[in-house]
Specification:
The chain has a single domain, classed as RelE-like (YaeB-like fold). It is 36% helix and 29% strand. The chain is built from 2 helices and 5 strands; from the N terminus they run E-H-H-E-E-E-E. A hairpin with a 2-residue loop joins strand 3 and strand 4. The relative contact order is 0.21.
Length: 102
């Protein structure tokens, strides 16, 4: 059974921020490609929620997966509810010390 995908406010804001950046610097083709990459990854995550890597022993259900070489999706897997909370779309060029995930 597929997991339900929930968008947090922060995930939605960072997703839109990445699209806004692409609008300023890239073509419509690149924007469409990014949107399709996200849609594809969400479909995969829904069916296979453990596909991402867990980097935190205290919170093993917080996982990350690459959308693009510059964008990582960080999400929380809730196995009992069969849900995934999208937490943030993180640009890998940012300072990793600024990344706070709860």
């Amino acid at each position: 059974m597929d997991c339900k995908i929930n968008w947090t406010n922060r995930a939605w804001e960072t997703y839109k921020a990445n699209i806004d950046y692409l609008k300023k610097s890239w073509t419509q083709k690149e924007i469409t490609k990014f949107v399709l990459l996200v849609d594809n990854k969400l479909n995969i995550l829904s069916a296979h929620p453990k596909i991402g890597t867990s980097k935190n022993k205290k919170s093993p259900n917080i996982r990350s997966t690459f959308i693009h070489k510059r964008i990582i999706l960080i999400y929380k897997y809730k196995p009992l509810k069969k849900e995934i909370d999208l937490l943030v779309f993180w640009n890998t060029y940012q300072n990793p010390r600024k990344l706070k995930v709860k």
